[in-house]
Amino acid sequence: EHAKRSRIRKKFMLESLLEQLGELRTENKTLRQIIREQVPGDEAHEILNSCSTEESLLLCAEPTNSPIGPTQQLMEPDFRLMQSLQQAQQNFVVSDPSLPDNPIVYASRGFLQLTGYTSQQCLGRNCRFLQGPGTDPAAVDVIRKGVEQGVDT
Fold first, then answer.
1. Could you say which of 61, 62, 80, 152 has the lowest number of CB atoms within 10 Å?
2. Could you say which residues of the chain have pLDDT below 70?
3. Which residues pair with 65 in a beta bridge?
4. Is residue 153 within 8 Å of residue 142, measured between CB atoms?
């Protein structure tokens, strides 16, 4: 009985927090719109950029512009996975197989530091540009087949 009450309390608390999050997102969107309308062009852009983090851009409710055009925002579980990978200091890129040529849509800070590439050099490109003379063709085939079949390799 105690466990059931505890689950109900947790569910209520989660629903309450999700409602508050929705309200905060709406308020944030309204404030951003006010800045866009009231502050001249470049200054508004600078203000909005200074108030944004890489993580908040991935999770925000409004579309953003990136080097590959408007980006699809992540759903909460996908965002949490990427956040966990970042905190574990993993070096990775994320590509979008729903777009033509499966372009990179995200590169972690660790990946950029490790490779020396900038996000502008990575985003919107297929991962093939990372292959060099030392790349094992058999390993590439395994990855390619996994992407085509939609399975982990």
1. 152
2. 1-5, 12, 14, 18, 52-89
3. 70
4. yes
